[in-house]
Write a structure and sequence with these properties.
The chain is mainly α. Helices cover about 50% and strands about 5% of the residues. The protein has a 3-stranded parallel beta sheet with strand order 1-2-3, covered by helices on one side. Helix 2 links the parallel strand 1 and strand 2.
Length: about 140
């Protein structure tokens, strides 16, 4: 008796074989410590604007984030620039971040060139972000 093999049968069997090989290899790699998998699909990250009103240096914000259990930080671009203006270097900052067990998920900044015609709100937002002002002035 002849069995006719369909395209669907080949795709299903091929996918199953490929999948089992990948899973087997990944499992061996994990056991050997070659692959790190996250404990969770979510990373808790501190957007440093939430503590901007305290006027802390970037390094202090990083230390606090690590101490309270954050896994990552989202600093503002102007905080990184201020760190550099005060003599800090990016390689040193990178080392500090790694030593604290943190990662940088994003760097936040607002630039006026993003919008073709900045509105009054957008202009205010850019200026307040650059100056560190946490609140919008009344009457606007």
């Amino acid at each position: 008796m002849k069995h006719k093999i369909s395209r669907r049968h080949v795709l299903v069997a091929g996918s199953a074989a490929l999948g089992s090989g990948v899973v087997s290899r990944l499992s061996r790699a994990q056991q050997a410590g070659e692959v790190k998998t996250p404990d969770s699909a979510f990373v808790y990250s501190l957007n440093t604007s939430t503590v901007r009103g305290q006027k802390l240096p970037l390094v202090t914000e990083l230390e606090i984030a690590a101490k309270v259990g954050y896994q990552a930080v989202e600093p503002w671009v102007n905080e990184i620039a201020d760190y550099q203006k005060k003599g800090g270097t990016l390689p040193d900052l990178r080392k500090r971040i790694a030593d604290l067990g943190l990662t940088i998920e994003d760097a936040i900044g607002f630039a006026e060139w993003i919008v073709s015609r900045p509105s009054a709100t957008w202009t205010w937002w850019c200026r307040s972000a650059a100056s560190g002002s946490p609140r919008r002035p009344r009457g606007r």
